[in-house]
Amino acid sequence: MKSAKVLVALFLYGCYMVRECLQHDNPEPVKTALLQTWAEKLYFELWNCGEYITNRKSLQSKYNKEAKLEGRNGHILVANISSVIKSMMDKKQQSLKRILESVEQVAVSAHNDAPPGDEYKVRNAKPNKATPHTNILLNDLKENSHFYHTPVNATYSSVHIPTYVYDRASDVIKALKWSENLDVAFRKNYEIDPRLSWQYFGSTTGFMRQFPAMEWPDKPDNTEDLYDCRMRPWYVEAAASPKDILILVDNSGSMMGQSKIIARHVINTLLDTLSVNDYVNVLVFSNVTNEVVPCFKNLLVQATLANIRELKLGVENIADPNNISDFSIALTMAFETLEMYRERNMGAMCNQAIMLVTDGVPENFYELFKSHNWKNGTMGMPVRVFTYLIGREVPEIRDMKWMACANHGYFVHLSTVEEVREQVVHYLPVMARPLVLHQSHHPVIWTPLYADVTDPKMTDYLWEKEECQQQYHDTISYKETKDQFFYPKNKAKRDRDRKKKELNQNLNVNRQKKHNLITSLAMPAFDKKTEMNITVRRLINDNYWVWETRETKVAHLLGVVGTDVPEADLREAMSPHILGVNNYAFIVTNNGFIVTHPDLRPVFGDILKPNYNSIDVTEVELVDSDNIARVFDRSILTLRDYIINQTTGDREITVKYHYDDMRRATTAERHYYYSIVEGTPFTVVVALQEKHFGYRVKIPDRFQNLNTTRSSLLDYFKDDEWRIHPDWLYCRYAYDDGDDTSFKTPEDELRHFLKRIAKTDNTWNKWPPPRFYSESYDCDKDLMLSLIYDANMTKGIFTEAKNDTEKKKKTEFEKRFGVTLAFVATHSGLTRWMDYEDKPKTPLNSDDHENQQPHFIDENVYSIEEVWYRRAVEYNMVNDESYVYSVPFENENIKSTLVTASQAVFVTSKENKKKGAAAVVGYQFRHSALQELFLNITKQCYSETGCTPAKDTCQSIERDCYILDNNGYIIASENVMDTGLFFGNVRGPIMKMMVKEKIYNNITIFDYQGVCFKRENEDDSNSSSFLYTPIHHLKQLIGWLIGRVLWLAAHSNFQWMMSQAQAIFEDVPDYQEDEESVYSADTLANFKIEGEKALKYVRINRTRPKSCDRVVNLYTLTSKIPEKVEHKSMCARPYELRKIMNTNLILLVVNGRCPETTKAENFDTEPKEVDYEEFNNSLNCHKAFYSLPRRRPKTACIRTHPDEHEIYDKMCGKGTITTVTPITLSIVFFLCLIL
After folding, report:
1. What is the model's pTM?
2. Those residues with Cβ within 8 angstroms of residue 1075's Cβ, 6 or more apart along the chain or in another chain
């Protein structure tokens, strides 16, 4: 009996398995009629909700009633922008010349003045509290928006003195005294041009005088101030014509210990004095000579920040000193490399120099210099030689000094680390001698984009600090959770959070503006005194020395004068409101580098990227081609050639571009118009999508003169539920130096000017006025009139009277969808909204954002630049009735998730059917409401479709249902946790099938501005071993101590530690309970890791940021979904889909009975690093080998002067006696760590 029961059970089980197998082989097809019905019902609900909430039709009707269109002419636009920028730059240049004349005149008059006495005080921007008797306090500093909201005093200047410069030295204090007279020129310039930014004079003695006066910003974590104006781009470019530099560093056996440390600092400091128009390489030699970066072999590389960083890493990894140095081979190799670059017109094509760093030479190598550098006599030598003698106890300096003096160079003897930065920069005034001797020619230089006072060397330090904070957080977390710390769920969450943070940091998603990006123009200032008396010793009768005074030629560089042009001013000059949505302008330098561009992403989180200011135009304008990384299409290379050679013209290119934090991409045909900015190395480019965005809205005539609307202006802006674009110029006072001319918000400023406009007929003042006063102001008439017109059109748009039926319907949809907010944004930068919930939002005049959920308007004030605005306008080209829906990506707080829907409002011409974007309307509603709607509709069967609820609806285990957007992201799913995920991450095989069948198109995007991370224990591309200096051993010791402290902290049972941890983590959820419901006790036991082994897993991998290229595959829905392809079996295409009408969404149903649909497959949208195997995965090596052409600056190359040989040959260097300040000693260790 028992056996019979077993047999029956086995039989029944066998039948069940056969049935299951048959079902897998013959799954029921998805019923297309049912799918179509679901899609139609979803459309009906979404469409009606959008129409009732946004009142789109009413706004559309208003604009079409009287607004007109005007075409965008690219040639006119680019010409106007170039003209505006040229006018701006001419004013800056005129101001600069006034400062220059003042510097040279004041310096001449002060030649015979004695240095001031001990009673002399300076207005120090960073006064030393220990010596208040030497400084004057900066008083009456007022915050000024024109200077980045920095407190300033515009009646006098202040000075910045580097930490290692002794401010009471006679030459320094004398220059400080006479340069006070520059305040007259500074003030006059500011009166003539109130839009002038910082003005400054950088002295060769090291200080910088800056106007207006300000207190120097504090450094993070009280780190030492390393700023030295002589190492900033504006100074080094103006001080001398462009240069090719070859640095030779001795690595013989005697260069051990302190000598090696000093040598490294010399090299790093020399590298810091170079700019992008210079070329450089570093060779290390003993018995053989090699490049410190092997892939830079026989090259001079452009001195970009990325290449300088690569060279510094190479110097850091120089092998241990050994053998005897062969100077002849090293010098010969250097001369031959420089000669090759001269003959081939490569590199800087101007000055050339060899920098020799050693602890001694065996001879002066007279014959070698004669054959390589004096071929045309000593008058025409092409290469200068600068020598740096390292060490305290050196046997002989005569040969080293002769080598420098005989080759128009300079000799420096360095015996301590702290004197390096001050002494190394002496080579700049020497290279400037030909410029000084010409006297009449003061070339104007323009820098590339850079951050004003930020030292790029801080990148590694700040990243290390961030990793330390992460390490602290992980250690505390382990302390609290112990075993649960290693549970897979918790580890996965930490990994996911870090990936998300890295992505956000790479893209700078928070629009941070911590760094002030600028370009500067500068000019060298010369000492007008060309002769001076010197006292020298002369040998008489072979054994008797006498002192005598002789007159000699001199050529002294006083310093460099400069002023800044903020990148924000350049963007403002491009009139983005005229260019319109999805059109833009940008600026390119003679090197092909971007100065301003909407896709320029210079920061990683809060840290400047290693190559932030050398982004090439080909790296932001991506051609729509199938080329692999850095194989640039001929069309963009041709455009680049036209741009850098400063021609005027236009070209059309089909490009691809990304947006929405590099999660979406599309392609478009862009028309590029380019024009030179006369007198600068800059070219302006305007990029238009003329096919779709070639027209702009023109306001009706009745608004042109405000006669009929002047009295009602303020009525358009009565409430507080509106914002304007914070970066656009509507109206602004010339000076921001009083309570009546400064405002807390752009909205306050606009209200103020609306009141003025309402009271006076003379609204639009001529700009610039003949003379500026405190009440002088500038208004952009076109933008202001457009704003007033849009305010009139959108006033009360969400509360317009409707009949009772419509009001009832609106209320019904509002409640059913959980609508939280409706909004409208216009082409003039106006954004209005209306809240449907009492959700806390940041008040208009409040800076308190803490402990508040961000309100929509706190993060969406940029109108035409917002993603939802751009997407709505763009999708209008696909379907002009569509709403575009989106949800936050990978949002973990599902309960509070909101859906954003937006639709564009276009003005359509009756004559030619052309269209221009006027506004975008939209609303936000609860995702939970959409989720409920989706589930309710897709669980229904309808008799006419012939469906069976148990098999055909989305409640069935045989069907998996999704709503996807046009880029493949999940808007709704049966599993609510899928919301915001890329569909390929959830159902990779299905996504792959849809791409194969052209339902989604793949767009490959290369991110040439990426930052990746190299683990510190990974091998460098440089095969040489690490240089273990005492400092390095000290760093290792500190690292070991930190590790032990962390381990002790994690396992300590001290009562105070436990009590603090209890207070901090008393609300931490119980991880164990959650995990135990998933894993068995035996499995959980495997997660228990203790002691040193636990510390190993808690400790994060130390990394160093590096520039890298990244690639990401993004997807976009085909505008016309192809018809279903017939397949032999149902599982060959195990899904069906329908577009949800008038949306950017599709309804997708997957046949769950097809087993291959659940296979795991890597199909995501995460950026991945591009490997350049040919160059040992080094991006900088790849770029150096395949370098793009450039045009050298148009400024004259002045590298020689016939009178230079008359300068007394002993004035080419000396041994140094260092005066060390107490502060200098305190920063030596810090310098060793970061350089």
Report:
1. 0.86
2. 484, 487, 489, 1084
